[in-house]
């Protein structure tokens, strides 16, 4: 009998599953901008889709080719169900009208995984009419909606949507026992550190000034360590990589100056220029990203999925909590975290990192896997032992862009 506390595969034998939502596959070749767009404008989205897509065993599974490619009324001829690896759909700025209109005309059940919100406490919890229609449609056509945490569950409850399961993010469906074993035994060190910053979305911060002070202090502190800055959608940093790729020295210097202003450091400093020119990375493949994380001895930052890449690799991470999305997820996971509700000295943040204990996370993960099993069963599916091995990744130094 399989240990019910371990990761599993969702079983849908003979079923044809249509995916719509966060991508699961590497971004195709192209410019950095084109590849970023293919991830849904944030490389972290790949973690969401990857965990669900590769965590499903079905007769056939594929992403929807586009609403214009298959009439909604005929989607059932090619598929038996719709799986939605979701992101921050519960937001006043998100309008899912076209999705609600299209899927309402289908005959298929719709199963949503990892629905979340980035609303701030006290913010009016109003949604676009199309988004609310989409959420009600999913509620009506599934046994339960999988949400990231209790904050999102409360918002849906206020809308009258009660068939909700708090399961976290489907990115964790990609974790393997080997990674859990490594997290249980490996102690974080500063030997080689992966960094993740959210300097372009600080408006989401619970305490924006504290977030800025903590990120900037940590950036300055890590200039002297063997650290790598892993991007997700930071515009200035991506502009720097693009300029270096095309040999645009002036463009690269302009980007360095902008990044330095964001982190409140002098752009002319030799260590700042060297770090930005040699230590910035971006990945357009989950397996490449996790492979890079496996070479690290620790990870730290405000980017949730950057730290998830580390956990999938078995590398301990400290989550710097700055918004409701990361707060509800870290509360659920009991992962080592620090709420940026005041300016913390960089040295204190580093001390929290090297003392991170993954015992509570591993204990909670066992309970969470049981909740995932119940959630899957509520939606009429079964689970089976893992079938997919840990991806084989190179231990080589990460490239500028992969």
Report what the structure shows.
By secondary structure, this protein is α/β, with parallel strands linked by helices. It folds into two domains: 9-174 and 363-384, Rossmann fold (3-Layer(aba) Sandwich); 182-359, Rossmann fold (3-Layer(aba) Sandwich), CATH 3.40.50. The protein has 15 helices and 13 strands. The strands form three sheets. The chain has a six-stranded parallel sheet, sandwiched between helices. Strands 1, 2, 3, 4 and 13 form a five-stranded mixed sheet that branches. The protein has a two-stranded parallel ribbon with strand order 5-6. Strand 3, helix 3 (97-104) and strand 4 form a beta-alpha-beta unit. Helix 11 packs across helix 12 (304-313). It is globular and about 60 Å long. It starts with 8 loop residues before the first strand and ends in an 18-residue tail after the last strand. The model is unreliable at 389-402 (pLDDT under 50).
Q: How many beta-strand runs? A: 13
Q: What form results from the Cα inertia axes?
A: globular
Predict the CATH topology of the largest domain.
Rossmann fold
CATH class of the largest domain: Alpha Beta
Rg (CA only): 21 Å
Number of domains: 2
Q: How many individual helices?
A: 15
